[in-house]
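the two lines:
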Amino acid sequence: MNSRQSHRSLPFRSAAALCVLLVAACAGNGEGLDANGRPLVPGGSPTLPLSADFESIQENIFTPICSVCHVGGGAPEGLRLDAADSYSLLVGVPSTEVPSLLRVKPADPDNSYIIQKLEGHAAVGMQMPFGCPNTQPCLTTSTIAFIRQWITNGAPPAAPAAAAVNGALSVTSIVPDSMESVQGPPPQMMVAFNHELDVSQLATHSMHFEKLAAGATSTVVEQVAARIEVSSANLRALMIWPARPLTAGRYRLVIDAASSSRFSDIAGQTVALGTPDERGQAVISTFDVEVNP
Amino acid sequence: MNQRFIKNRHLLLTALMLTIAALLRAAPAAAEPYLAVLEGYKCNVCHVNPTGGGLRNQFGLTYAKVLLPAETLDNALDSWDGKLTDRLRVGGDLRADWTRVTAPNTASQQAFSLEQFRVYADLTLIPDRLGIYVDEQIAPNGSQNEEAYVRYGNPTDGFYVKGGQFYLPFGWRLQDQTAFVRQVSGINMTTPDKGVELGYEHAAWSAQFDVTNGAANATTGSGYQVTTQVGYTKPIWRVGIAGSSTQSSAGDRRMGGLFAGVKTGPIAWLAEGDIVHDDSIGRSLVAGLLEGDWRLLKGHNLKLTAEYSDPDRAVRNNQETRYSVVYEYTPLPFLQLRAGYRHYFGIPQNNQQHQQAILAELHGYF
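prediction for all of em together
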């Protein structure tokens, strides 16, 4: 074979090499997995048919379609749509693209940003699921109708969370939690509960942030007032805003000594927030702010 | 020899000289990285953004007018040159599609759509030192800023700094943002981030170091993302390595990637492998890409792509693959037609992992 023939055959040899690699890469056979590619749990419930409740929407839409991208530390817009996080990051939470709109506004699907994104008429950004209709199907009108109906019904949580509602009032998450480091001043802190809070009791509570001396565990060098609020869209989340941006340093969120540390739900159950410090103040969280604003 | 032939020869010679000049200075990028591999260019040869994509520079536009299309127009060099003034350069991309997507047990969908209309602008405040760059998506769904940053330094040779909102450098900057490697890494041309980038461009080397908020921290106001990439480009091959670490209250996320390109005759080969570990979901993910672009004739490209994704390395039998064949025809400057077929393979119990798509696209650019 002369050099010219060799040069001509090069693309064909390369194409053959690609074909070999194409055949070598095989999709999984799905054995032992559910429809979302997760291992089957012995005795686990079969896939729910799509209906207008959160558990079904999570299992049929958010988990298999949305959480391909919206998961973990790389989730676009910080919106994680895996089963563990989606509800608390959707319902009553302002969207990052259009902050004046809630991602899910209970009882108001037209003004819920998720519906605008799925139907393709949001003011900002692309229609979801990402790439539709070019590289994957858009959700059909009938599929979106289930999400609309769930929102119209008030966007109730999934059954397991509903079961938790029947248990004792408890804290489900704190952001930022103790010993976390945050880069830049957090706009607010959040304490989530498993029950809806009795907002009429909010006026009896007050909190503040304490900045601690470098290397110290209890020496307070500065206090920052805080405002507490519960969004009417999500009565399970207590939001705490500092009166001014927190500068770099170690902080703790503390319930004022004159204030009650017990929070009530609408059924009258109570739970105490925070851990008493050496002065008897209830400390909800101690965290580090790493840089100045 | 007629006048038209002489003029075409003049155009080709001009383009050839531009090519040689660019190669010699190995400096001044490409949303279609196969072109960069075929020509042996770094991203900043054709793009204002040193990490590629977006606004084309003077050479990139000349390449698009003269060397890329099947037909070289007599007055190609006199056509649109991107300059509104000596200091202000603008450009854009408009992609309109028709697609038909089918999946088992699911009604087929077909639709015309406007995939994107983006406009770019670069304002040079001090030549080779200070500039402002903007990439704005105009449609669909209203305006959305993708990139907006101030750039200090020389992005063609030496150090530069970018501050503002920009795309992160990680692997091949593919035109298809849904490629597995771009989805798994979460870094693509729809996910810009805010922060600063320190870059270095010299001869065959390109390097970037970025500190940004990180996508997961968009609502929490906590954590940050550090991304770095180093690339080495030779005329017929290149190799690069990228890494990224996100600290987030949701859980930390670390990624590593290797990417490479080689030219064999008229074919440009692109490969990328990425591995991601995400503490927030307790999973390690892997994605791979192999692409071959065969320039059959001037203005004609056949693109074959094979992709692999393992969404959880600890779970067996859950891998997905995707194969595409796309024909790209560029008949004239500023106009490209694309048509293709794509097939997904995944676990049998998930219909969405067995989609097939037929697509046709009209791409206008300037």
